[in-house]
Amino acid sequence: MGAQDLTQSGFRLDGEVALITGGGTGLGLGIARAFVQAGAKVVLAGRRQSELEQAAGSLGSAAFTAVHDVTATGGASHLVARAAELAGAPVSILVNNAGIHLKKDAVDTSVEEFSAVLQTHVLGAHALAAAVLPGMMDRRHGSILFIASMASLFGIPKVVAYSAAKSAHLGMVRTLAVETGAHGVRVNAIAPGWIDSAMSRKALDDDPARKAKILGRTPLGRLGESEDIGLAAVYLSSPAAKFITGVVLPVDGGISIGF
């Protein structure tokens, strides 16, 4: 692929089918929107049908929905097959985005609470990766993205289970990248910083000191947008990133290196 071809098509996703967990809202929807704009079909997976339908409606005819709870790991293969049926082609991009949050001191976090977070972020993501990989490796074409976190990179109080789960994502990325690279599959992660959303606005507007601290640590001096994560996801899934695997890309306005 020459320089001119890369400029014209290197960042496109035409012909790709992306399965995005937690695709109905927030970062998942932002990623889906960017994928559709880049030419992909998207299958939005989540637990709430009405939420998924509303999201798909905003994306147009290239978007489909599949109700699925990632903690039901035994249903991963069925979801992958259903996604292929809906889109008319096999899943070539998997975005492990679904997650739950738990804000609690480590000493107050129960085994059951910790386990629930790991079940969603780690075991659920592994089950879906294991379900899509045989087909991707047979076709020698595929991209898997994990949505990591700033909690994967540095210490944040009151999120011990979430931090453990998101740190596990990075280990999974490295191992999967090494295992599958020779078979034409790339595996990467995005670590979002503070992104402007209804949830973050609610949290930060009620805590101006915390918002000031976050912005003070962010070299770009502002919150990000879901589009920023979507564009990064397009890049990592596109031919433009054909020699990139096993990395975690912070999309954070520089907060992970700010002081």
Please name the defining characteristics of this protein.
Rossmann fold; globular; 7-stranded parallel beta sheet; 259 residues; 9 helices; 7 strands; alpha/beta
Describe this structure in words.
The structure is a single chain. The chain has 259 residues and is α/β, with parallel strands linked by helices. It has a single domain, classed as Rossmann fold. 47% of the residues lie in helices and 15% in strands. The protein has a seven-stranded parallel beta sheet with strand order 3-2-1-4-5-6-7, with helices on both faces. Helix 3 links the parallel strand 2 and strand 3. The longest helix has 29 residues. The protein is globular and about 50 Å long. The model has no long low-confidence stretch (mean pLDDT 94).
